[in-house]
Design goal:
Elements: E1 4-14, H1 15-22, H2 25-34, H3 51-55, E2 60-70, H4 77-102, E3 105-107, H5 146-153, E4 170-178
Antiparallel strand pairs: 1-2, 2-4, 3-4
Length: 190
């Protein structure tokens, strides 16, 4: 198993401010439509609900950025995905714990759903999701710009692969939409 280090950063923002400053629904809907998972996963658009209407019931967003830095700079894409998967599982589990504790709605990290074996989502067959209690769309799926989010709210510039070489780090961004008057803390989900 590849070794890595992980840095967790968190911040909170008023949801109306986040929507006004970081949402570009048309741009990210076009990106989603270009993805082979579009309409093929319950975590991906198109949705059977209005995103803004769903989010309008919340006042705040607690954001989590997990920066993963592999110790080996020569990882293959498969090794890199192996490295990310356990962290995604931990992050999503903790977000669901926060969701239960504070109420609200968790938003997952973009990527394939972790809850069914790859290629076995029930959505292409028109069947209901097997794990609706676990599956949460990503912030990108809701139309938010994660590049701006990481650079402006976390001071982290996203890195991309070049010439089939993995980037020096990857950032998993997720969050919790909520109305809690109590301060949401990443430590609260431990």
């Amino acid at each position: 198993m590849p070794r890595y280090s992980i840095e967790i950063s968190t911040t909170s923002i008023a949801l109306d401010t986040y929507i006004a400053s970081f949402r570009d629904a048309e741009r990210f809907e076009a990106c989603c439509r270009a993805c082979p998972q579009y309409g093929r996963s319950w975590a991906c658009p198109p949705f059977d609900f209005d995103v803004l209407q769903r989010l309008s019931q919340y006042s705040s967003l607690f954001l989590v950025a997990a920066k993963i830095v592999p110790h080996d700079s020569n990882l293959t894409f498969e090794e890199f995905n192996t490295l990310i998967r356990p962290e995604r599982i931990k992050l999503e589990s903790r977000l669901l714990a926060l969701e239960r504790q504070f109420g609200g709605l968790a938003a997952s990290y973009v990527g394939t759903c972790l809850h069914c074996p790859q290629g076995s989502c029930t959505r292409p067959n028109g069947a209901p999701c097997r794990h609706p209690e676990l599956v949460r769309p990503s912030l990108e799926a809701y139309g938010f710009d994660i590049g701006r989010t990481t650079s402006e709210l976390f001071n982290i510039r996203l890195q991309w692969s070049k010439n089939n070489a993995m980037p020096p780090y990857v950032v998993l961004v997720s969050g919790l939409f909520h109305n809690s008057a109590q301060e949401v803390s990443w430590q609260a989900s431990l």
